[in-house]
Design brief:
Elements lengths: L2 E8 L5 E2 L15 E8 L33 H7 L8 E6 L5 H14 L4 E5 L4 H11 L6 E5 L3 H11 L3 E5 L16 H18 L2 E6 L12 H5 L2 E6 L6 E9 L7 E7 L2 E4 L3 H6 L9 E8 L2 E13 L7 E4 L3 H15 L6 E7 L11 H13 L7 E3 L2 E2 L5 E2 L4 H10 L4 E5 H5 L8 E5 L2 H8 L1
Helix pairs in contact: 8-9, 9-12
């Protein structure tokens, strides 16, 4: 007979130990061990649930070009690569109250209006609470079904009865299976529930959306294997004090990664923003030092945002380097380059860098913008309002070219910018003609001479 035994399992990596440990010896995380029960001794072997398909030659496999189901929300469709793929497993994470449940309810409502039978399963809210949210956003399609439950076996029974084409699980950390004795949300429960839902999606062709909790660091709670099991991982970003929300794709087996969609939080739900660059720049000040517009790529979309800097005298022994929306290590590196190669002494200055609009950018093309706005604030000389810049800066002060130059220039031209500073190599690589003044710079010194 099998008997139960208590073990301790790390909730980050799954490392098992016979006693509680403060620090995991495998992944190094602190206070991550949770007590779980496991059975040891003779156990019945489970029967195989599925047989593998027969091998097929790759040239005989056919694809359905119309397989994707468009939701009607163009921002959401573009992030997924063109629409919802049948049999896909999509994981959506974000801070509490950011709008995950509201967005997914809008998505399944749009799909239900097209005749697809959808089922929204919530383990945290009652059907009446879900109905209140649905009334607020106008989700009243007859093909949209609601279910409240936490047991996976009961949920699968209801799925077999209803046979929906689209399924939403809100949230994956609160669903449990009776086959495991551990508590809901533990590493074993999350991994087992996700694996069974993945098998259900692949064998039945139903698209499943999973909503996941996040930790205080912003990562999806639970084991990292959760992100490896699913087909697509989306993160909902945004600040509660801003009305705009950003949905970012960090993994997608059916489309490009690092795509973003911008939404505006309204009283009746989330409204998609078709031209986010214009939104981020609409409140930009005139003739103020320490401000420049940069062009960055988010997936396949060029995005123009305002980079701001404030340089002031410091009374501290070690001056502050505070950043919002950019990597602080990158800023420290560029400040050192500006001091050494540009002759700008910033050793006794506090430097604050901010990306307006609450967005975060991290590609090398923003280097030229950080150098420009920092020098502008230090010299107290504004950069012309019609100027946009992008390019990578090396440790020797050289300015390097970046990818998608023409796409970035066309986006800047569309928004009314008539002057752009880029690397000289990027100018040589241009194939088409862009109706704007394009100035090439090869070093930080060239940049300062052109701007000031």
């Amino acid at each position: 007979m099998a008997r139960q035994k208590t073990i301790f399992v790390c909730q980050n990596c799954g490392y098992k130990a016979p006693k509680w440990l403060g620090r995991c010896p495998d992944c190094g995380s602190w206070n991550s061990f949770v007590e779980e029960l496991t059975e040891i001794g003779p156990q019945e072997k489970g029967k195989r649930q599925n047989l593998a398909d027969r091998p097929q030659r790759i040239d005989t496999v056919t694809l359905d070009k119309n397989a994707r189901n468009k939701t009607g929300l163009s921002e959401f469709d573009r992030i997924l690569g063109g629409g919802v793929v049948p049999g896909s497993l999509v994981l959506i994470g974000g801070d509490p109250g950011i709008g995950k449940s509201t967005l997914i309810l809008q998505v399944v409502h749009k799909l239900a209006q097209k005749g697809l039978k959808t089922l929204y399963i919530s383990s945290e809210e009652s059907i009446q609470q879900m109905k209140m949210r649905a009334q607020r956003i106008g989700a009243d399609s007859s093909e949209l079904y609601l279910l409240s439950g936490t047991c996976l076996e009961d949920v699968i029974d209801r799925l077999n009865e209803l046979a929906p084409q689209i399924i939403v699980i809100d949230s994956i950390q609160t669903i449990f299976t009776e086959s495991l004795s551990s508590a809901p949300g533990s590493i074993g429960q999350v991994r087992e529930v996700t694996t069974r839902l993945m098998n259900l999606a692949k064998t039945s062709g139903r698209a499943i959306f999973l909503i996941g909790h996040v930790t205080k660091d912003g990562a999806i709670a639970g084991p990292k294997v959760l992100e490896h099991l699913v087909d697509t991982v989306l993160y909902f970003e945004g600040d509660g004090s801003h009305m705009y929300r950003i949905l970012r794709s960090v993994k997608n087996r059916y489309g490009p990664t690092n795509e973003i969609g911008v939404f505006e939080m309204m009283d009746n739900g989330l409204k998609e923003v078709g031209n986010p660059s214009e939104i981020f720049l609409e409140e930009r000040s005139n003739d103020v030092s320490g401000s420049v517009v940069i062009s960055c790529m988010e997936g396949s979309r060029p995005l123009l945002v305002e980079m701001q800097a404030l340089v002031c005298s410091s009374s501290l022994a070690i001056p502050r380097r505070t950043t919002i929306g950019v990597d602080p290590n990158r800023v420290s590196l560029l400040v050192a380059v500006l001091s050494k190669r540009g002759g700008v002494n910033l050793s006794n200055k506090d430097i604050f860098i901010n990306v307006a609009g609450g967005i975060r950018v991290d590609e090398p093309a923003i280097d030229l913008g950080i150098i420009s706005t920092t020098a502008s604030s230090f010299l107290n000389k504004p950069i012309p309002r019609n100027t946009v810049t992008f390019g990578e800066v090396g440790l020797s002060g050289e300015v390097r070219g970046v990818s998608q130059t023409e796409l970035r220039l066309k986006e800047a031209l569309k928004l009314g910018f008539s002057r752009c500073l880029i690397s000289k190599k990027s100018i040589k690589a241009l194939k088409g003609k862009i109706d704007m003044e394009i100035i090439g710079v090869s070093s930080v010194m060239d940049l300062l001479e052109v701007l000031f």
